């Protein structure tokens, strides 16, 4: 074969690969500024089942740009910066009306964690200073009623600052680690009379780098066998939290660079696919970005090392699991990894060099990367269109029901500071992934059936939907997403299930209405109880979602 023929064959092959992909490759997505200022930094975000997002930063940032209503003020002699503060440090953002209102937190919620309980109440844990052992709940408002934070001081056994929470099959949450806490506890406590509420976790000692830590906000996922996969620094284990035993130790992530705070990378558990009735569900974890060893030390002295451009993917259910490494188009630190309704992953926000921490990063990365989970290795990343707002330390991202990704925050400074490099960012933007582009409207499913949104485990569920174009039956599926609690580039409790499809039928012989019958997850281990969003996906284009509650 001549070189010319080989080249043209190669070209043809590339063309084929590219065109096979065009049905789902869009124009790179679109950014929209939703709010120029919500008055606070979006440091922590959680979407609730009323399509409102609870957002908060910290009470010791100084005065925010949003006043508390009705001349309310917080008088707190233990507060570090302002003892009388009449500004808000939390808001409720309404996705549908694009409006927000101030909320009132009493004690410091800085660098805390949380989850949504099975009944839909946000349960936040810990923080700093006077708030480090406090639990706060936020019951979602219904109708036009207002609702606000309720605080329960001293409910945590120890201080929890930079901890990770995860929802358990019994509906409670486990709170893991935090600064100088090599242990875990549960909330609520199952037995208030038990003598031991704090359980030690040696793994957090093993992964604690002196002077840098690199094991804060560990990446935690509930595996399909009921154990927890815990990744900290460059190591991971499978952990039986009931018996307090390490069930399995995974190999260190290759090259051994740290991936957790302050070398903040991120991680997701890839979609759990319930493909056939009795097949075992496999679980894979993807860890991306972070900062090379010693970056934190260098950042402190003003040298900003290029971020890691690698991702490691591991099948945690494999009997002999191994990391498979992949290369991102660019290095990133402090990026968020967001599960999209179709099961792909969006990597968004963050910087190209440095680490998390005050003033410790440079080179904002303005382009999200789309990671297509089922493409062959080497063809998984697509660079998306950029925003013009750097989202550095203390920025967040979450998916909402209409398929957009809401982005907020960024404040690498100790206080609100609107001057200099990377000024405190109070704006909220939306990134619309390319699946929302109008040229995919003909493929987009629209859910038309009213179905019972109270689900039980292992039940049949029929969803009627319409699609303008001819339906490609084997390319339609239903996903179910647990909206996560996002802070510090990690989305706690993020979980996407691809439900088992039992049949797809044409309704009444019409050309555009279909019914897909699926089976809800079989157990609380696969899907801990609570609220999820259900999407119908066709050729990777998702419908708008519908809230359901599984109990
Ligand atoms: C916040 O308030 C400060 C001082 O009052 C002001 O300089 C700044 O422009 C405000 N920023 C925004 C985004 O509203
Ligand atoms: C919902 O759950 C939270 C957290 O467990 C609890 O504090 C609250 O009382 C529950 N609300 C209702 C209405 O049951
Ligand atoms: C993981 O990090 C530790 C330091 O925390 C280091 O000693 C070890 O060599 C690293 N692992 C690899 C494979 O490099
Ligand atoms: C705000 O940031 C600028 C530049 O980054 C710095 O010089 C200034 O001291 C900061 N102001 C406060 C009040 O911290
Ligand atoms: C299909 O036919 C049934 C019975 O005739 C009717 O009740 C239903 O509304 C029809 N559904 C659609 C989507 O047209």
UniProtKB/TrEMBL annotation:
CDD domains, per database record: E_set_GO_C
Q: Where does the secretion signal sit in this chain? A: 1-20
Residue ranges annotated for the Glyoxal oxidase N-terminal domain, each copy included: 43-435
One Pfam family per UniProt: Glyoxal_oxid_N
Q: What range(s) does the Galactose oxidase-like Early set domain occupy?
A: 444-550
Q: Tell me which UniProt keywords the record has, alphabetically.
A: Signal
SUPFAM superfamilies from the entry?
E set domains (SSF81296), Galactose oxidase, central domain (SSF50965)
Q: Which InterPro entries match?
A: Gal_Oxase/kelch_b-propeller, Gal_Oxidase_central_sf, Glyoxal_oxidase_N, GO-like_E_set, Ig-like_fold, Ig_E-set
Q: Which PANTHER family match?
A: OXIDASE, PUTATIVE, EXPRESSED-RELATED, SECRETED PROTEIN-RELATED
The name on file for this protein is Galactose oxidase
Q: Which organism is this entry from?
A: Stylosanthes scabra
